[in-house]
Amino acid sequence: MNAVTARIAQGVTSIAAADWEACSGTANPFVGHAFLSALEASKSVGGRSGWQALPVVVDGPDGKPAGIAPAYAKSHSQGEYVFDQGWADAWERAGGQYYPKLQIAAPFSPVPGPRLLLRDPDQAPALIAALEAVTDQSGLSSAHATFIDPDEVALFEAAGWLIRQGTQFHWKNDGYASFDDFLAVLASRKRKAIRKERAAAV
């Protein structure tokens, strides 16, 4: 078996875009190098934002990333679209310290997608094990992978992670060419209410 090594990168920008995209692909821009690098460049993450970028990387035998997890040490629960303040409160009332925690996510986005970015799918267990090791060795309270792609659920379950159940509502454009086309299929009462809400917001 060829050896792999795990490491924490010094932010997304420390990883070549081509190496990142070889793992992430281009189907989901919220885990792409451009989006995550822009968050670092704009200081939306890093500094005093409460999001410290800690991408966890598993390098393949060729020395290039075979898997990457967009991970962050978090000092709060803001920008996650998961409301775990109750967990934090219970943890601290029990004598623990909930923050910092490890968050594997696309920051500021509740968009489901991959959180295990894999050039080599066989490295998924190694990447999850690396996330667990980073959590333990860095003194973080816990690790959370949020809005994971449904295809990844079994991988996290096999590693013993608890799976959070949630509900999202996604709007689908059924061929509407304009907002008025969308409104036209609604009952008059709903059209009127939406127009009133929009007028008040402008």
Brief characterization of the structure:
This protein is of the alpha+beta class and 202 residues long.
Describe this structure in words.
- The chain has 202 residues and is an alpha+beta fold.
- It folds into 2 domains: 5-158, Aminopeptidase; 172-202, no CATH class.
- The chain contains 7 helices and 8 strands.
- The chain has helices spanning 17-24, 33-41, 85-93, 124-137, 153-158, 179-184, 188-201; strands spanning 5-8, 51-53, 56-59, 65-69, 71-74, 101-104, 117-118, 143-145.
- Strands 1-3-4-7 form a 4-stranded antiparallel beta sheet, sandwiched between helices. A 4-stranded mixed beta sheet has the order 2-5-6-8, covered by helices on one side.
Question: Roughly what fraction of the amino acids lie in strands?
Answer: 5-15%
CATH T-level topology of the largest domain: Aminopeptidase
H/E order of the elements?
EHHEEEEHEEHEHHH
Mean pLDDT: 94
Rg measurement, Å: 20 Å
Helix segment tally: 7
Distance N to C terminus: 62 Å
Major sheet: arrangement of strands: 1-3-4-7
Low-confidence segments, given as residue ranges, are: none
Shape: globular
Q: What's the layout of helices and strands?
A:
Layout: E1 5-8, H1 17-24, H2 33-41, E2 51-53, E3 56-59, E4 65-69, E5 71-74, H3 85-93, E6 101-104, E7 117-118, H4 124-137, E8 143-145, H5 153-158, H6 179-184, H7 188-201
